[in-house]
Amino acid sequence: MHVVVVDPDPRTVSAVQQALGTRWPSCEVLGVTPRSRVAQMVTERPPAALLLELDLPGADGLALLCALRPLVAGPLLVLSARTDLPTKLAAFAAGADDYLPEPWGPAELAARLLALWRRTPPPSPEVSAAAELPAGSVRLRLSTREVWVEGQPLPLSPAEFRLLARLVQQADQPVTAAELRQAVWGSDVVPLGRLRGVVHRLRQKLARAGVDSHLIRARAGGYYVWEGSWTLPPASISSVGEELAHEASVG
Fold first, then answer.
1. Residue 97 and residue 112: Cα distance in Å, rounded?
2. CATH says 2-119 is which class?
3. How many angstroms separate the CA atoms of 190 and 177, rounded?
4. Per-residue pLDDT averaged across 22-36, rounded?
5. Which of 30, 75, 139, 227 is the most exposed, having the fewest neighbouring CB atoms within 10 Å of its CB?
6. Do 219 and 247 meet the contact criterion of CB atoms below 8 Å apart?
């Protein structure tokens, strides 16, 4: 397991190494600067988590966060000395899974990552960056969050991808609306209407691509099911969580 830290300050990388090494001795911490080939690094070797400093010299931390979010399937945690609410909200809107203000302690960092990994397990070593997972005519590439239908790319939002991946993971098994909201947003108190909206948009995109949109079925009691014929290994889904809310009460 390895964690990538995007921060030009070697002291931060050292502190992260110490914090995680105490809890997980085999965890490798890789420090990179924003000018490094970060995107290529995380695509070729998906990290278990990515830690990003917002205050980067000569670079826009929020812009880098937006660029990296689609490439990182695992948790993305922001480290920053900025504590103002607008900055925090902007980071979450850009795709951050958590926000840890500085100064932070090693125990808190480890605890936050552990909480994130409970919802988003670290990727299995057997799943390579290029792994493509078939679901009938639909194929998913987890590392880059790409989807194809009959070989043609199907653009999805991060939320739609996480929703699809979460449902496919438990193909033919009902998933509750609360579980989906937790998987997509990391919270089961997200308004149900938001979940329904993501389901609705995902169905529309599948239908336009020639896929039976009713593969995603709403069941009584607020359950959703991907009615496929296969199931992904649980360890191969490393991050699921953003917009799934449009049909628990209308199906």
1. 10
2. alpha beta
3. 10
4. 78
5. 227
6. no
Mean pLDDT in residue range 171-176: 77
Give the span between the Cα atoms of 165 and 106, in whole angstroms: 32
Per-domain residue ranges of the chain: 2-119, 134-236
Cα distance from N-terminal residue to C-terminal residue, the chain? 41
- Per-residue pLDDT of 89-101, as tens digits, reads 999 988 889 999 8
Q: In terms of pLDDT, which residue wins out, 249 or 28?
A: 28
Task: Please state which CATH number belongs to domain 134-236.
Answer: 1.10.10.10
Instruction: Tell me the C-alpha distance between 248 and 141, whole Å.
Output: 27
Q: What is the pLDDT of residue 182?
A: 75
Q: 176: which strand partners?
A: 223
What is the residue-wise DSSP string for the chain? -EEEEE-S-HHHHHHHHHHHHHH-TT-EEEEE-TTS-HHHHHHHS--SEEEEESEETTEEHHHHHHHHGGG--S-EEEEES---HHHHHHHHHHT-SEEEESS--HHHHHHHHHHHHHHSPPPPTTS-TT-EEEETTEEEETTTTEEEETTEE----HHHHHHHHHHHHTTTS-EEHHHHHHHHHS-TTS-HHHHHHHHHHHHHHHHHTT--GGGEEEETTTEEEE--S----GGG-----S--BS-TTT-
